[in-house]
Amino acid sequence: MRIEGERDFDAPPAAVYRALTDPEEMAHAFAAIERIDAEGDEWTLVARPPFPGGFRLKFSVKLEDLAEAEHARLRAWGKSLGGRLSVDSAFDLEPVGLGARMRWQAEVEAAGIFSALGNQALGPVAKQQADRALERLAERLGTTAR
Fold first, then answer.
1. Domain enclosing residue 67, as ranges
2. Mean pLDDT throughout 12-18?
3. What's the mean pLDDT when you consider all of the chain?
4. How far is 129 from 120, CA to CA, in rounded Å?
5. pTM of the model
């Protein structure tokens, strides 16, 4: 399932890029993340997704195709008892006035208990989580996302 979006930030592309590729900033942005350990461009994180059951998922995350202040790709895959999720996401940044425009897309694949949610439920939840994370990120940058 594919989700995508576009956001404008009142911060320059370099600041938005740094925040989007910083594990601590991502931990603050995504409320579901409980712990994150990073070694360079590879992260391991534990998250409690907003699904019934209150279970935790352990994700491996790899940052790829890094182009400072312009583009990055984040691939994440995680599993828990009875299911797994993978997310292949990328974003592009461009300057707009004194701020930045971000265009992003993600492919989300689910198996096991997560596939039972179906695209009708999983898609809106994934998009909502991404939008909320970008709003939190904008707040931490001291700007607004629109």
1. 2-140
2. 96
3. 88
4. 15
5. 0.85
